[in-house]
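Ticket #4471: complex job returned nothing on first submit. Input attached below:
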Amino acid sequence: MESVFSPDALTGSGPLYLQLQRRIVEAMQDGRLAPGNSLPAERDIAAMTGLSRVTVRKAVEGLVASGQLVQKRGSGTFVAARVERLEQALSLLTSFTEDMARRGKSVESVWLSRAVHSPSPEEVMALGLGAGDRVARLERVRRSDGVPLAIERASLSTRVLPHPELVDTSLYALLETMGNRPVRAVQRISAANLGARDADLLGVVPGAAGLKIERIGYLPSGRVVEFTRSLYRGDAYDFAVELKLAADSERTTG
Amino acid sequence: MESVFSPDALTGSGPLYLQLQRRIVEAMQDGRLAPGNSLPAERDIAAMTGLSRVTVRKAVEGLVASGQLVQKRGSGTFVAARVERLEQALSLLTSFTEDMARRGKSVESVWLSRAVHSPSPEEVMALGLGAGDRVARLERVRRSDGVPLAIERASLSTRVLPHPELVDTSLYALLETMGNRPVRAVQRISAANLGARDADLLGVVPGAAGLKIERIGYLPSGRVVEFTRSLYRGDAYDFAVELKLAADSERTTG
DNA sequence: TAGTGGTCTAGACCACCAA
DNA sequence: TGGTGGTCTAGACCACTAC
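Support reply: We reran it on our side without changes. The output follows.
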């Protein structure tokens, strides 16, 4: 433990903050710093290493940004707990609730908003709204076993969901009872660094990588039902897809 | 322009570096700072705003991390160029080369490595190798129209690819000539912050969000052909998927 | 209340780039 | 060579947490 923050061994090449960072990472890898362990206070590390506190902070900063350390103001700096990685099959149209239930995980939703609004231009486009149409917006943080996994922002025409406040756990379950459950959807997946607000909601550091998914769900008739933008924690989620050879795939759309 | 860095208007609430950051973002959004424009030198911004250089750097740091600004040592700080976002259909098994050709983009590969190695434990698992088997490793940076888009690290048994140095542009094209082109693949998609080396290869800042894709490709016989780990630039790539209702999908595996 | 991280300053030297 | 970003220091005050 002392060896991690000893003043010697800071004799390597490169910036001092990177050398210190490297030593902390090594200590975490070989178990000298285990998940949950706290690091000495920044001022103490500075005194032990002979560096300034600013330099120590810069070393720690990078590890906090990559999720390996967690800082709590007034409390201390801790080695982050490992997050179990969940995997979701991407080829099936399932809801988050159903998906988690299937693998025996609890699901909690923290509602941020459930109300009717005037549509944004983006929503008008995606949902194919007419003049005067209004949208139901559902915004929530999805948790499983207490760990926040995703932020979900769904928009639906009030014609399919006039009373968004009735949605409890599963949006798809409610849509099903009204005969409006989508049977087909198109998703776009990309990655983005999370902003301050979203990172906060997901319990990660601003700038952490998130999986951004935009989904448009269709009824059998081809009408659009839902337009959902989700942000998944990059460190906690995997999507699995099965692909087939191009020439091999049947054309179901022709 | 001066208004962005004027000493007044730093009267809002919250940390000074966030207030300055917000003003820079606003200037980029309304075009007062256009892509390619340079910002004043850090020391000048400090003088103009009445802040210390350290505080100015902290404001800029966040925007560099999220890819909105680019810093060049000895040269200056610049508003980042916007990167056109490409979209790839995820339901078809195509190669990068074919994919880009289809949309009229040029493709360049920068080879980092093309050689035969002893397999790592991970490769033994994924490829189902036996004792004594060796692997061909292909590592390259994929560029389109000069912009680096992805890092691709492919591993194949030397039984299907004895001479990796023969791979020129398209791995799949070569495999096809040998009757070893995969017809099916399973992918896992997640997001991760890019490390220093990978970020450098992709021309983005360390910590930027990347789309991580692991793919295992199969022959018609069910044998594994390739194990590929790719990292796509999160700001330049979109994957599109079409989903179908669970109960609706035919079971082809039963 | 004592200790922690969060912010901020003024000033310094170095490495790199362009003219 | 002069200007730029990159690193580093010593010291200060604030906000929050735990006791």
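Residues 15-17, 51-55, 58, 72-76 of chain A lie near DNA strand D (CB under 10 Å from a C1'). Closing as resolved unless it happens again.
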